[in-house]
Amino acid sequence: MKITVHFCKSENLGGRILRLFLMSKWNHVAIQIGDAVYESVSGSGVIKRRPADFTKAWDKISSVEVSVAEQLTLIRFLNDQVGKPYDWKAILAFPFRGTWQDRSGWFCSELVYEALRVGGASLSDRLPANRVTPRDLWVALP
């Protein structure tokens, strides 16, 4: 089964600073399954919204289709994450953080990576063990 991973760019000051900090052309990543887009955003944490509402929020989006073996497991995982907070701790301490695998809160690429992993996607062994950025996913996904 295929799902879609969206890589996003905003031209506002926050987006520019984040891209500079991450050394990436993307400052956000989200995952779409059918008519639902799941993402973790700074003001709301993990949310689920319609694709039309999602696309209005970004200046540029590039999408990649990814095969997953366990789509229902992936959907259950994402639905269980909705409402969890944004992982500010990880963002603020990103350069010094030993691990990003705290399931009590998510930033965007953490959420997408873990959803892909849970869904059985074939992920590159080039991804860092301690954190995953939008740039890391962009490079690693087929």
Could you explain the architecture of this structure?
The protein is an alpha+beta fold and 142 residues long. The protein has a single domain, classed as Alpha-Beta Complex (endopeptidase fold (from Nostoc punctiforme)), CATH 3.90.1720.10. Helix content is 35%, strand content 23%. It contains six helices and five strands. Strands 4-3-2-1-5 form a five-stranded antiparallel sheet. The chain starts with a strand and ends with a helix. The model has no long low-confidence stretch (mean pLDDT 89).
Topology:
Layout: E1 2-9, H1 13-22, E2 28-33, E3 36-41, E4 45-49, H2 51-56, E5 60-67, H3 71-81, H4 88-92, H5 108-118, H6 134-140
Helix pairs in contact: 3-5
Mean pLDDT: 89
Number of strands: 5
Shape: globular
The tally of structural domains comes to 1
Proper CATH architecture: Alpha-Beta Complex
Report on the biggest sheet. Answer: 5 strands, antiparallel
CATH class: Alpha Beta
What structural class is derived from the secondary structure elements? alpha+beta
Q: Enumerate the spans where pLDDT stays under 50 for 5 or more consecutive residues.
A: none
Q: Terminal Cα separation, in Å?
A: 15 Å
Order of helices and strands: EHEEEHEHHHH
Q: Per DSSP, what share of the residues sits in E-state strands of 2 or more residues?
A: 15-25%
For CATH, the homologous superfamily is named as endopeptidase domain like (from Nostoc punctiforme)
- List the total number of helices: 6
**What is the CA-based Rg, rounded?**
14 Å
Arrangement of strands in the largest sheet: 4-3-2-1-5
